[in-house]
Design goal:
Number of domains: 1
Low-confidence stretches: none
CATH superfamily: SecY subunit domain
Number of strands: 5
CATH class: Mainly Alpha
Helix content: 55-70%
CATH architecture: Orthogonal Bundle
Number of helices: 18
Distance between the termini: 9 Å
Strand content: 5-15%
Shape: globular
Amino acid sequence: MIEALRNAFRLPDLRNKLLITGLILVIYQFAAHVPVVGVDRVALRNLIEGQAGGLVGVLNLLSGGALVNFSVIANGVYPYITASIILQVLTPVIPRLEQLSKEPGGREKIETYTYYLAIPMALVQTVSQIQIFNALGGVPIIPGFGSDFLLTITVIATMTAGTMFAIWLGNLITEQGIGNGLSIIIFAGIVAQAPGNLVRLVTNSTQPIFNVVAFIVITVVSIVGIVIIQEGVRRIPVQYGKRVRGRKQYGGTATHVPLKVNPVGMIPLIFAQSIITFPALVVNLFPDGPVRQSINSSFGQQQGLLYWATFFILVVGFTFLYSDIMVGNQNLAENLQRNGGFIPGIRPGKRTQEYISTVTRRITLVGALFLGIIAIVPGVMDFINRQLFPNEVVSGVAGNPALVLSGSGLIIVVGVVIDTLRQLEAQLVMRNYDRFIR
């Protein structure tokens, strides 16, 4: 990894890509420290400290660390992610969208629709986010919001514009830098929060030694498991038919199609994290009542069997859904048939597509269950702490070593690092520097 980075810096164009990525992340962090007008800093600080491991922590993760200051980009890229989920789910359901996705330039049009849909999603999140923070903290974080018309419009317009600015920065990294821009922004926010979370775990907990050991064990085991699952593949044998032209024979070679155990990386976790916050955000748009309190208690505080079971199901479900979409978009059966390839014992065409889909779902089951288990590690650790230390009253990051990075955060960090390094190495290979890759 270090050697690949060193060799990348020797090439002017790759060095520029890395510097552009770093510069954009610096700009994002500057924007993350520009607070929205009218924010009560004291109320916000009390809320962040008391809810660091709950819904506030999740939204802060998705915003790349911008929520701690309730900055103009406090919504982060979450509205765009939600809009992307909605359109990806609707594409197979609505024939016009499915047809559009297969047309030349159709993907670009759907991407444009995603940007348009992200605007109303940002409006909804701004209002509901402020309402839920007021409910969780007990004190308005923006006094006058809702009653002062000019202040309300200013806050909503500012935060919506900030969301589109964050999305633009992420896309700029994708186009001009290295890696997936939106994932890198979330990755940078997770890494930036880790040292402070670790300090709180050691200084504020009544069991610092146990928590540090648990943190190291969880981190090491999780990273090893993530790498194994991320790199695991099932090789489907492929045979190419022989073609004779004149005196020469073409084809007849044997190769394989690698199907990954987890072909979608950390995308299902980001999607699930986005959706799991939705009930707590939406319910705060309605009057107070037992239903609102119950949903806030489970989904707002990130606790209870209902929350973790829902989170597990969402992660597993999104893994299967996104895997099917990705494999379907690759048109492997059609491409094999067009190039004269076939899977031994399987008829080309529809039967090959069905076979590939069946194998993909079987191996995806392992990856989906692994992602689901990693996602609920904080809930399992919280249960273990309650059994071992019933008198422990510290909550959030200070009382749960799994929340220093969180299972979702670990997968995002490892996934982004692996994906970025692959892109970096691919750029080196394209420039005939494959001798540098060890």
